[in-house]
Amino acid sequence: MFIEMSEPWKMFFDGAAQQDGARAGVIFIGAGAGVIFITPEGEVLPFSFSLTECCSNNMAEYQALILGLEMAVNIKMSRLKVFRDSQLVIRQPLSLYEVKKPEFIPYHKYALKLITSLDCVTLKHVPRKENKQADALANLASTLASCSEEIKVPVCQRWVVPPLNYDIEEKEQVGVVSVYEIEKKD
Q: Are 113 and 68 in contact (CB under 8 A)?
């Protein structure tokens, strides 16, 4: 009997919370989550979520983890490698860190439930530089969430290449400054 194992999907995630005010009186004004899936074929699928509730950065991290896991469950991924540059939200589901704050317990339990509903999930801490895209998506979403009205931002990919038949005329010299003396009449 021969069983072929498919390559796992990869998921990078991040959460971000925008805050206003001094350290003692911090007011959270917007939060966002970024999730990036990489298919076994290498296709990148980015997602950005403006969170509807203001929350701390750690809560936004849990939101991002759960949103990504819910998507994985919904499309019936069998194998998933999860990456994040936050020690807390990677190590708590692995039982390496204790969940001390009571407000995180329901999110922790729900994340574990989602993880166990998939066939094979691994969680791994990565350096911040390896999670830049998810971080950018989370920060964009948290900034937009802090706005008073809904803003939809399409993110396009483009590179401008001037047409090949565009020539600079000889008279038009780039980077040259000409000074002319004008006769002065009294």
A: no
